[in-house]
Amino acid sequence: xxxxxxxxxxxxxxxxxxxxxxxxxxxxxxxxxxxxxxxxxxxxxxxxxxxxxxxxxxxxxxxxxxxxxxxxxxxxxxxxxxxxxxxxxxxxxxxxxxxxxxxxxxxxxxxxxxxxxxxxxxxxxxxxxxxxxxxxxxxxxxxxxxxxxxxxxxxxxxxxxxxxxxxxxxxxxxxxxxxxxxxxxxxxxxxxxxxxxxxxxxxxxxxxxxxxxxxxxxxxxxxxxxxxxxxxxxxxxxxxxxxxxxxxxxxxxxxxxxxxxxxxxxxxxxxxxxxxxxxxxxxxxxxxxxxxxxx
Amino acid sequence: xxxxxxxxxxxxxxxxxxxxxxxxxxxxxxxxxxxxxxxxxxxxxxxxxxxxxxxxxxxxxxxxxxxxxxxxxxxxxxxxxxxxxxxxxxxxxxxxxxxxxxxxxxxxxxxxxxxxxxxxxxxxxxxxxxxxxxxxxxxxxxxxxxxxxxxxxxxxxxxxxxxxxxxxxxxxxxxxxxxxxxxxxxxxxxxxxxxxxxxxxxxxxxxxxxxxxxxxxxxxxxxxxxxxxxxxxxxx
Lengths: 295, 236
What we know:
Strand content of chain A: under 5%
Number of helices of chain B: 12
Radius of gyration of chain B: 21 Å
CATH architecture of chain B: Orthogonal Bundle
CATH superfamily of chain A: MetI-like
Oligomer: heterodimer
Mean pLDDT of chain B: 88
CATH topology of chain B: MetI-like fold
Largest sheet of chain A: none
Distance between the termini of chain B: 44 Å
Helix content of chain A: over 70%
Shape of chain A: globular
Radius of gyration of chain A: 25 Å
CATH superfamily of chain B: MetI-like
Shape of chain B: globular
CATH class of chain B: Mainly Alpha
CATH class of chain A: Mainly Alpha
Order of helices and strands of chain B: HHHHHHHHHHHH
Largest sheet of chain B: none
Number of strands of chain A: 0
Low-confidence stretches of chain B: none
Structural class of chain B: mainly alpha
Distance between the termini of chain A: 27 Å
Mean pLDDT of chain A: 85
Number of strands of chain B: 0
Number of domains of chain B: 1
Order of helices and strands of chain A: HHHHHHHHHHHHH
């Protein structure tokens, strides 16, 4: 051991210099692309003190946009949480015919441009859409109104919960659920006592991601909303509108509100992730142990 | 939607996707997305490496920051980049209304894909292989080329495919910094938006179908790759 330490020293020192260089490149790239721009937004926002910011954040247009964003999120997130759990259980446990197709279909909102999702909604619910005119004749307007915004938000954030829950369901398997059923537990009780605790963290992580996307969606919403200030303008649309109206303080103030919400989401994600990575580590160890046992 | 594009007839579909402005937008989008994916592949792998194999103070914070582009609303991301690389840039580097500006926005929003795909693989990568190669006299570069990169390749490709699918459809982060000058800085998603505002849903649907095809093609090749990968594992 001590005999081969001496010759190994030289290359190790060279490698550590390379490691420093690689670290430098990676951190510089992140600083220039992520950290500095976001910091500068905060600096620019409070450049002229806090009064103009407070003034911008107490205007009716901002308050209405903030309220609308919260309303849309409060509808979209529970909807997608419930749908996500049901869809994941259906796909994993019941394996319906065409399951592979459904599985791919659920990912579609990730693959599609949000603009295309907005357009698809217009082609269905718009004035010249497939069922739009009929709905409008009954006094229910979807496009250029709040229902369209909610629908767009639900669509773009649809896959998150499903995607987080499916792997957990596969991993826990059906043994415990079957045991509960044999012992006479009803399906609701089995779900509540066995399945739900097993997928809990996946649901929470998915809900966090869904919330972030719902608060921040821009492309799809911008197509279906009509952007009526005070009526169908969400927070992200408000940022764009203020920017285009040469009101940087208004745009920056609203951006900072959105950025703070994003940072809160980020914090939640990293707290959960450290737990998940620890679990993954232990799983990896177990797998290695199993491999060695087989050998 | 595909139905709508077809109902309007193949001629109008062709006319829409062969209008010079739409072709320019599609070309720009796919070209920039390809460049972005190449940069992502290199920088994403590098960052993942630093996060897994390197140790330095504040690593956990850096690790959490990687998800920032997923959490930050795209319009805020665009405004953010415009603040540092726009007309009032403290570096004197004005990339507003340029293709480089669009590139920057796309790099921002696609940053996490390769990093987050490579990281778990790197964590589970067996270091004994590298040590064995090194003790047999392989240089660090050879170890990187013959051992590490082949092991990471599927993860890098997965990240690249997701980043590409995201980049070709990106709208929110690009719309402010690009200025949307036809033929020069108008990307496909913005082109769709403008056609729709000009009351041409047929044209918008046609470009959408091209984007949709691009995304589906990317993701289905990813699925093929995944299946091939799992078959390899089964054989091993």
